[in-house]
Amino acid sequence: MGKAPDVPPRAILVDKPAGPTSHDVVATCRRALGGPRTGHTGTLDPFATGLMVILVGRATRLAPFLSGLDKTYLAGIHLGARSESGDPEGPITPGGPPPTEDALRAALASLVGTTEQRVPALSAVKVDGERLYALTRRGEEVERPTRTVVVGRADLVSYDPMTGDALVEIRCGSGTYVRQLAADLGERLGCGAYCRTLRRTEVGDLPVDHAVSPDEVAPGCGVDPVEVLPHLPRVDLDERAAADVLHGRAVPGAPEGAMDAVALVRSGALIAIAEPAGEMLKPRVVLAG
């Protein structure tokens, strides 16, 4: 295998279609760009669509500063049936009659906050070194791990009590399984539920409206990585300070109140991420050579 070509660090907002895995989308982008190092900042299930932040070249080092951002989803939830996978893959079994709109709104409100979520049986989480979905499909009963998740809001957009089809906008923290939220919602209502459709509309403050399809990715597309880090404090460097940063040296100018990471920019381009150390900024990830 040849060495990946060295390209300027870039970030591309991609609108994933239903069907391919997140790995498939990254592979498509990598081929379209000529083979540079390429990665993403958060997976989407194959049935899901929406925003993926694709990082190219040295920008792949920025994934830790994006993967933990809150995300917004539009979930098409069907109430009155259960799915073993939590999504259309199934198998799907009948549940109880769909709830009233008032009962649904109350149940959605109960999802908001910090809770312990049990990961879906058909998930890629490892238990004793093996993927949980593999154990489940073999019929092995294992204790599904839990994780702490935060749901900021779960707003009902539309609902048809005759069919049991609801559209819900959810804002949640990283690591939340929205299809498990749908299943939990169905159990709270006693009727069962699963996630029929799922679309990620935002990562942090980045909207899917500005994204391109994987087939539209081509050499030169995308933006400077600083454009996908609006949540980080930014410091613009002069020529001398930029040269120090490129050699790994700390520079003065830590913004007041900055606790963790700061974007260091020269002439509009991100050159490094630094961590505050008193009044100094210590380079943590350097993008330029």
Give a brief outline of the structure:
The chain has 289 residues and is an alpha+beta fold.
Describe the 3D structure:
With 289 residues, this protein is an alpha+beta fold. The protein folds into 3 domains: 84 residues, Pseudouridine synthase (2-Layer Sandwich), CATH 3.30.2350; 133 residues, 2-Layer Sandwich (Pseudouridine synthase); 55 residues, Archaeosine Trna-guanine Transglycosylase, Chain: A, domain 4, CATH 2.30.130. It is 17% helix and 36% strand. The strands form 4 sheets. Strands 1, 2, 3, 4, 7, 10, 11, 12 and 13 form a 9-stranded mixed sheet that branches. It has a 5-stranded mixed sheet with strand order 14-16-17-18-15, covered by helices on one side. The protein has a two-stranded antiparallel ribbon with strand order 5-6. β17 and β18 form a beta hairpin. It is elongated and about 70 Å long. It starts with 9 loop residues before the first strand and ends with a strand. The model has no long low-confidence stretch (mean pLDDT 91).
Number of strands: 18
Task: List SSEs in N-to-C order.
Answer: EHEEEEEHEEEHEEHEEEHEEEE
Helix content: 10-25%
Provide the structure class. Answer: alpha+beta
Helical segment tally?
5
What do we call the CATH homologous superfamily of the largest domain? Pseudouridine synthase
Strand percentage lies at: 35-45%
Q: What is the CATH third-level topology name of the largest domain?
A: Pseudouridine synthase
Radius of gyration: 22 Å
* Average predicted local confidence, pLDDT: 91
- CATH architecture designation of the largest domain: 2-Layer Sandwich
pLDDT below 50 for ≥5 consecutive residues: which ranges? none
Number of domains: 3
- Largest β sheet strand count, sense and barrel closure: 9 strands, mixed
Shape: elongated
